[in-house]
Amino acid sequence: MKKIAVFASGNGSNFQAILDQIKAGTLLAEIGLVVCDKPGAAVIKRAENENIPVFHFLPKDYDSKEQFEAEILAHLRKHSIDLVVLAGYMRLIGSTLLQAYGKKMINIHPSLLPAFPGKDAIGQAIDAGVKVTGVTVHYVDEGMDTGPIIAQKSVEINDEDTKETVEEKVHRMEHVLYPTVIQKILN
To answer: How many whole angstroms separate alpha carbon 100 and alpha carbon 83?
Structure first.
């Protein structure tokens, strides 16, 4: 069985969606590790409740990005990780991890890239007045949401939508699209 590592910085709703699909038997993988750069994040508790190993760290405790990425890499190797899945990990990936995982590292982003990269993509879309946003799964590279696109799905924004209702629609789409794409990559 292929093993994935989920990198997350927050609540872990995409982690949970992936885990739910594994439990349902529609995603044939195992979450071998969760990596989190925010020691108080809810995703840690979700993983611990499932007895999934967690490596959490504070970047400020390291002298450089290379240092903490080297430690992450050691954990990925220790757990024999086949694919790294970023799910709300709010940190750019550096050369240490990219050299080791390159085309084995993907990210999900709440917009139709290249539109609205970076933080608060849903807020950016609403502020821009667009009628369609969506979800993108892409390979990770050195840039901010600039890696090659693997899959996209659109989400309509209606006049009555608020930021919260658009977030809800986007999350529902993410929770369907991401496990599907992960399975295709693992195949």
So the answer is: 11
Concatenated DSSP letters of 29-54 = -EEEEEEES-TT-HHHHHHHHTT--E
Q: Could you give the CA distance from residue 176 to residue 114 in angstroms, rounded to a whole number? A: 21
Rounded CA gap, 122 and 84, in Å? 24
* pTM to 2 decimal places: 0.94
Tokens linked to 163? 């930021």
**Residues with a known catalytic role:** 109
> Please, are residues 127 and 116 in contact by the beta-carbon 8 Å criterion?
no
Structure confidence at residue 102 as a pLDDT band (50, 70, 90): confident
Query: Which tens digits make up the pLDDT trace of 86-96?
Result: 999 989 999 99
CA neighbor of 65 nearest in space, from 40, 104, 98: 98
Write out the two tokens for 9: 């910085």
Cα–Cα distance measured from residue 86 to residue 150, given in angstroms and rounded to the nearest whole number: 14
